[in-house]
Amino acid sequence: MTKPGPHPQEAQILALIDKGLNNTAIAELLYCGPRAVRKVRLDHNRPPAPRSAWRHAHPKERQIRQLLADDHTDAEISRRTGADVSTIADRRRMLGLGRAPMPKAKARPHPREAEILAALKAGGPDSSNTAIARKLGVDKHAVGRIRRAHDLPNTYERQRAEQPSVEDRWRAHTRQVDGGHLEWTGPRASGSGTPILRVLGSWYSAAGIAFRIRTGRDPKGHVRAECDVRHCVAPACVEDEPGRQGLRLQLRRLQGLPDPPTGTCPNGHDLAVDGRLDAKLSHYCEGCKRAKKRARSTT
Prior knowledge:
Layout: H1 10-18, H2 23-30, H3 34-43, H4 61-69, H5 74-81, H6 85-95, H7 113-122, H8 129-136, H9 140-149, H10 155-162, H11 166-172, E1 174-176, E2 182-184, E3 196-199, E4 202-205, H12 206-215, E5 224-225, E6 238-239, H13 241-254, H14 271-274, E7 275-277, E8 283-285, H15 286-298
Antiparallel strand pairs: 1-2, 3-4, 5-6, 7-8
Helix pairs in contact: 2-3, 7-8, 8-9
């Protein structure tokens, strides 16, 4: 029995083996049997190809990998590169990127968008989403989407923008008196008579507003007038807790009195935190004062 000769495509098979293709891929390219490719590989002592190198790299392999890393859909990558969707899916699995993102559906314009937009831009008291939806017979949520898409303020935002500022409201409730002081003519808290101001459902301290006008920052602690006029709201007369304690410490030093004690009080409160000076420049512990107030409320 004669020994069979070499395969007619042996040279081509060897060239593809050297490129790293496996037997199945070579058989598909040369239209021969995988067993014939395997025999040529064994006859010439060629090692088996790695499983990850069983096909040629795509001409746009780098672009495909970059688009996959940017989280594009397989259909979008196929449209940009011309690669088959199955090829892109194989690269996605090989890179461990998980499932392809779902394409986002494009929002269709509302059939009456022009009318809704005209009503929104017209403004007026009946320009709320509910009023426009009732007038045109559309869904109020659709009106809201069109409003957001065109950055048009809603009724509350427009009314809020048209409202006077807190500072302007504060000025409308003040009256100049002798000595540069300001008297509060607006509402007051019941019992204490503290000047207060209500703006868009929120309550503000009139002295706190005066403090922000003078300093440009929010106060710390209670804000009170340090002048002789009770409940004065002049910006130059009000101080918050740190400013008030600083002024009283300076007055105490000007009178030749020693600085307040440091350390802890007899009840263990830190005087650096709870130490205070009253209007008579006498030192006291705020922590002890709070404790006594709590004890009275529980009895």
